[in-house]
C-alpha cells in the first residue's frame, strides 16, 4: 500500500474546468447549429495547431502592453519559443501567409477550438475556453464586413434567440482613430488607454468612462485605475461620439462626421460605416444590426469595421438572478495581420463566438438542453460462465448493430440488485435479462425500467408487485432487437406526450 506522503493530490489548475457528458453534448448541439449557418454562407472548415511560434502570434492580447505577456509559452529543443494560441485569428493569418500561393482568394473559412490566456482567472474568466470563428481573407470591400454582421444575426436566430433579444453593433476603428487625431492625441499608449476607457461604457456608464478618460477611476473596493489623462474639452469630444445615440443612418453619418472633423482617416471610417448601413438596409437587417460608435473591441490588430453581438434579453443566471449577458461574440477587419508575414497588404475580416459564454446564456434561456442522447440499454449478467457471457456479449453487439445504444454490465455481477441500481443511476431505459431457464428456452426478458419505476409508485404491496411483473416482457432471442426498438419508440412517444 502506498505511503500517504507519496500520494499525489488530485487538483485542477486555477482557471480550468473539467467538462462532463451533458455539457459536451450541449456544446456539440450548439456548434452544429452554428456550423450549418457558416456552411450556408459558403465557408469551409480549416484547423490549425494549438501551438504556434511565439513571434508568429505577435503581441495583440487585450490589456497587455508587453510582447508575449498573457500567453503560455515553452521552449522547443532548438531553443525557439512556442506559445499556446490566445485566439484563432493569429494562427489563421500565419496559415494564409504560409500557404498564400495555394489558397484561393477570397479565402472563406471557419474553425472551432480551444484558446488559452495566461491571465488571472476569476468568475466567468477562464484560462482555457472555446471559440468558433469565421473569416474572409482577401476581400477589401466593406461588403465582407456587412456579410459578417448578417451571419452573426443568422447564427443567433439559428440558436433560437428571438429577434429583439439580441443586437449586432457595428463601429469602425478609423472613426475612433479619427476622433483621437481630431483632439490631438498621438501617443500610442494614450490612444490605447482611451480605447480601453470607451470599451468600459456598458460596465461603468458615461460618468465612469469620463473618469477613465481623465485622471482615473477608483472602484468600490478602493482600487484605482489610472486614466488616459485627457483635458475637459478632449473628454467632451470623445463622449459626444460614444455616448448612446439613436438615429437614422444619415443622422448618424452627420453626427459622426462632426465628431471626426479635421481627420481624413476618421471621415474614411464614417464613409465605410455608411456603406455598411446601406447594405444592411438593402438586405433588410436593420432591425438586427445597428451602427454604434461606442463599440471598440479589445484586440489591437483591428484596422477598420468592428462589431459585436450582444444579448439584450434579461436572462437568469445559475443563481436565478436576472442579468444582462452582454457580448457573446465579435470581430472586425484586420488588414495588417497577414501583412506581418507577407510585407504586402492582405485584407481580412472575421468574427469569433465565445462558445462557453453563449452556451451558458442559451441554457439559462431554455434554448439548449443537455443533449437528447438516450442512456444505454443495459444487458445484465446472471451467470459468469463463458457460454453465458458469450450470449450476453452477443445480445449487446446485436443491439448496437441495430443502432441501439447498449452496454453489458462490467461490474460485480453476483449481486443482481447492484446491476439494477447501476441501471437506475445511468438512467437506462431498459434492462435485458437472461437466466439459465430463459437461455434453455432461447428466450430473453426485457424490463422497462422507466415504466417499472412509474408503476412501483402505484403498487402498494410486494405481493402485488410480484404478481403483476410490471413492465417486463419475454421474447425470443432472435426478436430481441426489434422488441427493444419497439419499447424505446413507445417510451419516446410517452415523453413527447408528457412534454
From TrEMBL:
InterPro entries: aa-tRNA-synth_II (IPR006195), aa-tRNA-synth_II/BPL/LPL (IPR045864), Anticodon-bd (IPR004154), Anticodon-bd_dom_sf (IPR036621), His-tRNA-ligase (IPR015807), HisRS-like_core (IPR041715), HisRS/HisZ (IPR004516), HisRS_anticodon (IPR033656)
Domain Aminoacyl-transfer RNA synthetases class-II family profile stretches: 29-376
Example of a GO cellular component annotation carried by this entry: cytoplasm
Subcellular localization, as worded in the UniProt entry: Cytoplasm
The protein's assembly and partners: Homodimer.
Source organism superkingdom: Bacteria
Catalytic activity of the protein: tRNA(His) + L-histidine + ATP = L-histidyl-tRNA(His) + AMP + diphosphate + H(+)
Residues that bind L-histidine: 87-89, 117, 131, 135, 297, 301-302
Protein name as annotated: Histidine--tRNA ligase
Enzyme class name: ligase
Recorded family membership: Belongs to the class-II aminoacyl-tRNA synthetase family.
GO molecular function: ATP binding; histidine-tRNA ligase activity
Main location: cytoplasm
EC assignment: 6.1.1.21
Organism of provenance: Phyllobacterium salinisoli
GO biological process, any: histidyl-tRNA aminoacylation
Keywords associated with the record: Aminoacyl-tRNA synthetase, ATP-binding, Cytoplasm, Ligase, Nucleotide-binding, Protein biosynthesis
Amino acid at each position: 500500500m502506498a505511503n500517504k506522503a507519496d500520494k499525489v493530490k488530485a487538483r485542477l489548475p486555477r482557471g480550468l474546468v473539467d467538462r462532463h457528458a451533458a455539457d459536451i453534448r450541449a456544446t456539440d448541439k450548439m456548434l452544429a447549429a452554428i456550423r450549418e449557418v457558416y456552411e450556408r454562407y459558403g465557408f469551409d472548415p480549416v484547423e490549425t495547431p494549438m501551438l504556434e511560434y511565439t513571434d508568429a502570434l505577435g503581441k495583440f492580447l487585450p490589456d497587455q502592453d508587453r510582447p508575449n505577456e498573457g500567453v503560455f509559452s515553452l521552449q522547443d529543443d532548438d531553443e525557439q519559443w512556442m506559445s499556446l494560441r490566445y485566439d484563432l485569428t493569429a494562427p489563421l493569418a500565419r496559415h494564409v501567409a504560409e500557404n498564400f500561393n495555394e489558397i484561393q482568394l477570397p479565402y472563406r473559412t471557419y474553425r472551432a477550438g480551444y484558446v488559452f490566456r495566461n491571465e488571472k482567472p476569476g468568475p466567468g474568466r477562464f484560462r482555457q475556453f472555446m471559440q468558433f470563428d469565421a473569416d474572409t481573407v482577401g476581400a477589401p470591400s466593406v461588403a465582407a464586413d456587412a456579410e459578417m454582421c448578417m451571419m452573426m444575426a443568422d447564427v443567433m436566430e439559428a440558436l433560437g434567440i428571438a429577434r429583439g433579444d439580441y443586437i449586432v453593433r457595428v463601429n469602425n476603428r478609423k472613426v475612433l482613430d479619427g476622433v483621437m487625431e481630431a483632439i490631438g492625441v498621438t501617443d500610442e499608449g494614450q490612444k490605447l488607454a482611451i480605447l480601453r476607457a470607451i470599451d468600459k461604457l456598458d460596465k461603468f456608464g458615461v460618468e465612469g468612462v469620463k473618469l477613465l478618460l481623465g485622471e482615473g477611476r477608483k472602484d468600490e473596493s478602493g482600487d484605482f485605475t489610472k486614466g488616459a489623462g485627457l483635458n475637459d474639452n478632449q473628454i467632451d469630444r470623445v463622449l459626444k461620439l460614444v455616448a448612446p445615440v439613436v438615429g437614422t443612418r444619415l443622422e448618424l453619418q452627420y453626427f459622426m462626421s462632426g465628431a471626426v472633423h479635421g481627420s481624413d482617416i476618421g471621415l474614411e471610417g464614417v464613409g465605410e460605416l455608411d456603406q455598411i448601413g446601406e447594405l444592411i438596409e438593402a438586405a433588410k437587417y436593420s432591425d438586427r444590426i445597428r451602427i454604434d460608435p461606442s463599440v471598440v473591441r479589445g484586440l489591437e490588430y483591428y484596422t477598420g469595421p468592428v462589431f459585436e453581438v450582444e444579448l439584450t434579453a434579461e436572462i437568469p443566471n445559475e443563481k436565478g438572478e436576472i442579468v444582462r449577458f452582454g457580448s457573446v461574440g465579435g470581430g472586425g477587419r484586420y488588414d495588417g495581420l497577414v501583412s506581418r508575414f507577407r510585407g504586402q497588404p492582405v485584407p481580412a475580416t472575421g468574427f469569433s463566438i465565445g462558445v462557453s459564454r453563449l452556451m451558458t446564456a442559451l441554457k439559462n434561456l431554455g434554448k439548449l438542453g443537455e443533449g437528447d442522447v438516450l442512456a444505454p440499454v443495459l444487458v445484465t449478467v446472471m451467470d459468469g460462465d463463458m457460454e453465458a457471457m458469450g450470449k450476453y456479449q452477443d445480445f449487446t453487439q446485436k443491439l448496437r448493430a441495430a443502432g441501439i445504444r447498449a452496454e453489458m454490465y462490467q461490474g460485480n455481477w453476483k449481486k443482481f440488485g447492484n446491476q439494477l441500481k447501476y441501471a437506475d443511476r445511468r438512467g437506462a431505459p431498459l434492462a435485458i435479462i437472461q437466466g439459465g431457464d430463459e437461455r434453455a428456452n432461447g428466450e430473453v426478458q426485457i424490463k422497462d425500467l422507466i415504466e417499472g419505476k412509474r408503476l412501483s409508485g402505484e403498487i402498494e404491496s410486494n405481493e402485488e408487485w410480484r404478481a403483476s411483473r410490471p413492465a417486463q416482457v419475454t421474447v425470443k432471442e432472435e426478436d430481441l432487437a426489434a422488441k427493444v426498438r419497439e419499447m424505446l419508440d413507445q417510451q419516446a412517444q410517452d415523453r413527447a406526450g408528457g412534454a
